[in-house]
Amino acid sequence: MAFVTVDNIFQSYGKRPILERVSITVDEGAFISIVGASGCGKSTFLRLLLDQERPTRGQITVDGEPLTGEPNRSRGIVFQRYSVFPHMTVRDNLVAAEALGANLFGILPSAKRREVRERAMRALDRIGLAHVAHQYPASLSGGMQQRLAIAQALAAKPRILLLDEPFGALDPGTRERMHEFLLDLRAETKMTVFMVTHDLPEAFKLGDRVLAFDKIRWDPHDPEAYGATITYDFDARDGGIPYQRIKEETHVLDPPREKPLASSG
Amino acid sequence: MRWINRHPGRALALFLTVVPFVLVLLAYALGSEARRAVNPADKLLPAPAQIAETAVRLVTEPDRRSGVILVWQDTAASLRRLALGVGIGAGLGLVFGLVIGLLPLARTGLAGFVAVLSMIPPLAILPILFIVFGLGELSKVALIAIGITPFLIRDLSARTAELPFEQLVKAQTLGASSLAIGLRVALPQIMPRLIQAVRLSLGPAWLFLIAAEAIASQDGLGYRIFLVRRYLAMDVILTYVIWITVIAFTLDWLLARLSRRLYPWAEVR
């Protein structure tokens, strides 16, 4: 059964439509890459999945349940920047992943503190950040900060991980290593991942499916008149070469459920 | 080479730092010299030596009537008022700043109100404070607190609202409640800003303190200056002014050090 169902979503800011008629179903454990030109609603789509914004029309359900109206522990997020807390040391950033939700005050009971700290140190050991455990994130390189941000998001054990151009600011070598890091983690946790990226090779390398967002209607006199939707849904498994499996699953763009609207909003 | 690219070396930097101080002292000494050449009993610009003599007398000799050294008594009284007033202002500024910065409901309800409040000239309501709280300590402390609180609230709420939304979203995905976000994410990041804002508001705080002491008080640095004004005792006034400057500078320096010490992460950015 589909894990995440996006059902005919429209999103507009004021009069300006951003997304229109977006529908997709995603199985649990899938890695979805999202690509498209700037300003075509990729990040908006991610914010809708995160429940940071509500769609103007349509509904998103996760595991059969509609979203609740605000972000929660079931969905982790890594942004391109500002994802870690600058006032906490590297270790405390991981501890905070468990502490912030521990109670109303976000403070761990002293009995659990030691155990959580040790767990954080083990996690840092694994991601190769143990030697900077007591430094502040600002003194870390971009790649290290993003590794920390991903580890922090995963420490809360979300079922869905959302990545908003997580490697956009990294140099190519670091990016390569981050891909391996992410693939390892993913093989281990079997999470569902949505990743927005500008880098097509990256999208195809990491994703099981690659969704392309674009505008299907375009008014040259009013470029902002229409919103974007999912225009392609590629099968990116097996290096993007189809028909490598005995029973091939094809993802076909959902047929439009309504007649195209004269104007959306 | 363009002027914007010229940087002083070590020796030149030290020289340039000292020059304005030396020039002011020199100008004073020359002015004093000139006036005393005409009238040896001139009270307006006493000789630097005489000021030093008065300063030594003020900090070593007890008052004949009360038996205490007045400078220390005045300093203690003034610093107590200043600490209480600034402390109350900082506490209120921090709490309201965080609440207004974080909660849209509070922002809608309070931001406009605080913006209007901050336009009331505090000295204009000093008479009201004297009438309501009497001429005692309370009205002086209240004037300082009322004088700096609106600025602190506005500054800290703006700083809180400036926190990257990514951090607030991240904290929510880690399961944090509003209170936890306020206490663990916003508060620690606002503390260095609070210290910075308090440093900036120390100037107005001294202004309100000295104004309140000048009008109604029995001790305090401001009271003493306005008292000896009647005798044209410029040597005492100048000693007190220098002393106040030293205290204010030290406070500012201590706060800057405290911020660097407690919040080292705020320096690297």
Give a quick summary of the entry.
The complex is a heterodimer of chains A (265) and B (269). Chain A is an alpha/beta fold and 265 residues long.
How would you summarize the topology of this molecule?
The complex is a heterodimer of chains A (265) and B (269).
Chain A: E1 4-13, E2 16-26, E3 31-36, H1 42-50, E4 57-62, E5 65-66, E6 75-78, H2 90-99, H3 110-126, H4 142-155, E7 160-164, H5 172-189, E8 192-196, H6 200-206, E9 209-215, E10 228-235
Parallel strand pairs in A: 3-8, 3-9, 6-7, 7-8
Antiparallel strand pairs in A: 1-2, 1-4, 4-5, 9-10
Helix pairs in contact in A: 2-3, 2-4, 4-5
Chain B: H1 10-38, H2 48-60, H3 70-102, H4 104-117, H5 126-133, H6 137-161, H7 165-173, H8 178-215, H9 221-228, H10 234-262
Helix pairs in contact in B: 2-10, 3-4, 3-6, 3-8, 3-9, 5-6, 6-8, 8-9, 8-10, 9-10
Overall description:
- The complex is a heterodimer of chains A (265) and B (269).
- Chain A has 265 residues and is of the alpha/beta class.
- Chain A has 6 helices and 10 strands; from the N terminus they run βββαβββαααβαβαββ.
- The model of chain A is unreliable at 258-265 (pLDDT under 50).
- Chain B has a single domain, classed as MetI-like fold, CATH 1.10.3720.10.
- The model of chain B has no long low-confidence stretch (mean pLDDT 92).
- The longest helix of chain B is centred in the C-terminal third of the chain and has 38 residues, at 178-215.
- Chain A binds chain B through residues 50, 52, 70-73, 75-77, 79, 81-87, 96-97, 99-101, 103-107, 136, 138-139, 152-153, 156, 158, and chain B through 164, 166-167, 169-177, 179-181, 183-185, 188-189, 263-266, 268-269.
